[in-house]
């Protein structure tokens, strides 16, 4: 397959993961930032892949057409235009941006700031969170999908945290609260004042309060999972670490599921999931998941207060982006799933 | 006055603040860790104070008796025994621990792990959060108090964040959620594995989920402020920074106060407060308050979701401990308030 | 006095220090970045100073003329043009850049990349390292100087570390080596890729190897101090911390001073210096000096290897810039020296 | 093979590396800290290895005897007693401690604080720095060695940095200076005050100035490489990062090799080395080598000052310990070398 936008943090991880996977073959990589150079000058990858030339974005379609599937690690507005073109050439697409995650076209001007150029694809796209099949409208999952929308990093952590509770009707879906904390790689490879060391180190603050684009994505997934109208108030914060993301979700217990059974609900829900671990909430740490494809969750119900807390951690560049994309890719082409190592 | 437990992080800040305040006179300092040495060997303080000898804890009462007020920066179980002794000798006390913050003696075994040795003092103690007078049962505040319980760091930030909303009846007091994030100095000067650099750096996790001792304190203050039964689900997290604490509070709007007036409610509530700043929630950052006596808050109502988010930041060792103690101390003795510089 | 370039990290520290000093009066501040706003919107300063309007750079001369002394926290090329203009108007100048530190005009194209517009001022400028008077050619120090060149941050630490040894002839001045490590604030307030959190955090590297502009400054000062031709190989490194700078200097013992007397040599040299502390080399840490005006040094001679190691730490924005500038300023106007608190 | 001391940072890396290497078979692991539990409860390793039970240290010999080679990640004093026992049972040993690195038994009381219990093994031990064969006295390298002393982390970086220059006679071997900076994992998994987050974060200081045990190791290796008496003044510093080590070495050019040829000397010396990269000194960064088995070096000669600077970086737990141990292990048993990926 090919990777478009290979010079970004997620794109670089994709290159490494695809190169290491025995069943996958990386035939082309695209990024203006590294155009004209060899991939190996920028990313440590096996020799076979290191010698790939990086093509400019203007060649994205030509390069992608040489593969069966194109992995897009491009900004949403770029993916929104590029994906339809690739599909038209018969190339299947896994898009790591938000361009095809939301079913409602009207959400794009509101949350992403642009009018969607290919709204007809929104209903077709498969929302690819493998451990929460009900987050997608496609019954067959990624298998027959032409277009997979890879979930957002915070969204993955939040949906994993709340889906079992919403599906079981254990909480009030109308008042869920998610506090997200992410390492700086989640902001992408941009030269901006807010991403300077002097701005981030020894500091913490919330951003996009009330208007982070993962909000509609989390609500959509949970609404589908629980067949309810989910409302999630989501606040992200920028953490002074490189890698890792943790969300702490709060909700009100409905009383439908006894407090003592809430944790068992999680263990059952994720027992089949190789890459989702359930532990005590205090054992859900960035260190346990960073540089791995795992997500780790912990839940604790508070009988006295009628509330439940779920902590959910993952590596924002892996389970929150590149390794989840590989899970979807492998499902699409029938390759062995991502090693659970 | 005197400082007992001057070798702790908060104790050291107290020494510096008292030494710098023109109207205050530091006459004695106590700490086993530095006993027998001079204060100036450990903390940068003006010469007059640098030459004070640090007495051992066994001399705490004798040393404290030489002053008008004793500032206790000792663990709760120690303060619980020491404060009554000092009061019996006519020394007024500002206690930085949780030993006298809760009115209900039964809360101590449950949340602090010990039986309170002087429960009769709990009703008398003034809960000293100057900007939220209603958090205390003492009408006169610190002025005539013999014993002031200095609030906890997370508790200060959380109460400041929610009190105006609870007092105005703007939110449902039965389902408030507080996500706390604190720098490591908040854990105190202990040699423990969880506080090692290799455990904290590049990492984040929640701790004491469902059983952090600031929970009853926050609920008590908000219950008093709003004359309601407040329920707060509080989850703290350890941040890889040295100083600074931020809480993000979530609550459901009751509808009593129009969304558009929620921010004005905060600005009015804190207009008289020299040390509380109200800004946009994204401008509430650790950097803005670290090493200062300020607290900074931001609020945003979400009309669509019927929720409100408040971010609240302060320096855990200053507004969350030592500088707030000085605010209380100055009020007790009628000294000019802490400079708002 | 006035501060030109008040919006930089050093400039902001200057504003705070001047505002806090009882004998100094800040009458004007200049910076394009904050032009048109009040100083207090950006820096926490006392009310009297907070209301100062920040003037644009185009008004620098007019603003500076209202004061007795102008503190320039501008880039070297800007200071090089501005200082002569201010001097012509009778305003004395303390320049925090390198524009007037080197006596040889030819050094400017080589080390700073520009031709000096006012080379005639280079001989007049006083190199202001108060604790090493011999680093300057002006016998009277700052007292009667019209123009003071405030030393560089690494240079201050390195000169303090080596001057006593060079003056005593204890080392071979032809082969001195200085390894510098500085926090990121030393790079200034620029939006550059190399200063991004993702580039700096968990990372370290040397930069400007063989061509850092503090090299000629260190050699000039030590040559003057020891009346020898000093050669210093200096390599700076960017540290993933905000504040603080430490240099480790290595030199070969000449044999002239017995090994056992080398440390005493330092203690004698700096005994009169309020702001220079001498400790064991392992007790020279960033934490001890950050946010203070102190420099701290430690020395250890290795008899077996015939070498000596000196560690030297200071806060790059304070003793490495702003507080040293205040030391010079106070000497210029005869104000009480910087409090040693 | 087996790993003794698998619970340490280096031991855990060994487990991961051995488990991932197709030709190696991990049959036993030992550590008191994890005794009685499964390896997979502590380290993410493939399933086959995850189920290994961790034996207590008291069983070390029994466990190690089941394998061909034992990797010791134990403190020097422990290795010094354990290795002879294992050798007596016919088990070959790769020791990651300093217990067998120095040829002179008298160096052990001086630098390590204990009398060596098996000094007769010191002459036999192979000093295993694969890219600098001349650092060992064994002509055949690790191939036929019963006992391999894996080099220290700082020592590896310093020897790689200086060996080419010493071997070519390009520098004065009597005055070499090495400034080391290492991430905290290099200090091992200990609960000590100096390793607390509050002590390390935002801080830097030198330690063991004049008495770090890597000093005699570096001098011994360079003396052997250059057939001279090498003198190295080495000063390590503790960096506020988790992983990564960089040394900056300074030396005086002898004049034997023209300045312009110094860099070529390095490129030639390391051209055959898969795991040593030569770049510009500013491109030698922790980020480039952390989490990889590579070392990266850069050199710059200063004609004017007659000095040379070499920067040398590696991951202290990998090329500075575990991955270098694997290089030695593979050489011992004739397995394919460590993949250069």
TrEMBL record, chains A, B, C, D:
Annotated metabolic or biological route of this protein: Amino-acid biosynthesis; L-arginine biosynthesis; N(2)-acetyl-L-ornithine from L-glutamate: step 3/4
GO molecular function: N-acetyl-gamma-glutamyl-phosphate reductase activity; NAD binding; NADP+ binding
GO BP: any one term: L-arginine biosynthetic process
Transmembrane segments: none
Keyword Oxidoreductase assigned: yes
Catalysed reaction, written as an equation: N-acetyl-L-glutamate 5-semialdehyde + phosphate + NADP(+) = N-acetyl-L-glutamyl 5-phosphate + NADPH + H(+)
Keyword NADP: yes
Keywords: Amino-acid biosynthesis, Arginine biosynthesis, Cytoplasm, NADP, Oxidoreductase
Subcellular localization(s) per the UniProt record: Cytoplasm
Enzyme class: oxidoreductase
Coiled-coil residues: none
Highest taxon listed in the record's lineage: Bacteria
GO CC annotations on file: cytoplasm
NCBIfam families, A to Z: argC (TIGR01850)
Function of the protein: Catalyzes the NADPH-dependent reduction of N-acetyl-5-glutamyl phosphate to yield N-acetyl-L-glutamate 5-semialdehyde.
HAMAP family in the record: ArgC_type1 (MF_00150)
Protein name: N-acetyl-gamma-glutamyl-phosphate reductase
Organism from which the protein derives: Polyangium spumosum
Gene: argC
């Amino acid at each position: 397959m090919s990777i478009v936008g290979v010079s970004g943090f997620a794109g670089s991880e994709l290159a490494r993961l695809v190169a290491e996977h025995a069943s996958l073959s990386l035939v082309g990589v695209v990024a203006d930032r590294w155009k004209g150079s060899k991939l190996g000058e920028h990313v440590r990858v096996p020799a076979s892949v290191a010698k790939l030339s990086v093509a400019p974005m203007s060649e994205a379609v030509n390069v992608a057409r040489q593969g069966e599937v194109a992995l897009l690690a491009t900004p949403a507005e770029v993916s929104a235009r590029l994906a339809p073109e690739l599909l038209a050439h018969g190339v299947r697409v896994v898009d790591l941006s938000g361009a095809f995650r939301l079913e409602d076209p009207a959400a794009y001007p509101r949350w992403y700031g642009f009018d969607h150029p290919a709204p007809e694809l929104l209903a077709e796209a498969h929302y690819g969170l493998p451990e929460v099949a009900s987050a997608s409208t496609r019954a067959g999952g990624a298998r027959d999908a032409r277009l997979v929308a890879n979930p957002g990093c915070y969204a993955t952590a939040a949906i994993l945290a709340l889906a079992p509770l919403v599906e079981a009707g254990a909480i009030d879906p109308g008042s869920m609260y998610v506090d997200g904390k992410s390492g700086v790689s989640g902001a992408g490879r941009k030269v901006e004042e807010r991403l300077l060391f002097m701005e981030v180190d020894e500091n913490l603050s919330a951003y996009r309060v009330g208007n982070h684009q993962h909000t509609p994505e989390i609500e959509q997934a949970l609404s589908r999972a629980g067949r309810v109208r989910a409302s999630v108030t989501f606040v992200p914060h920028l953490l002074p670490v490189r890698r890792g993301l943790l969300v702490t979700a709060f909700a009100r217990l409905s009383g439908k599921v006894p407090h003592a059974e809430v944790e068992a609900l999680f263990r059952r829900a994720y027992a089949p999931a190789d890459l989702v671990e359930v532990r005590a909430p205090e054992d859900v740490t960035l260190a346990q998941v960073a540089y791995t494809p795992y997500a780790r969750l912990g839940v604790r119900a508070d009988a006295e207060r009628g509330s439940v807390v779920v902590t959910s951690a993952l590596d924002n560049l892996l389970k929150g982006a590149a390794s989840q994309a590989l899970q979807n890719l492998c499902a699409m082409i029938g390759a062995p799933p991502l090693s659970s190592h």
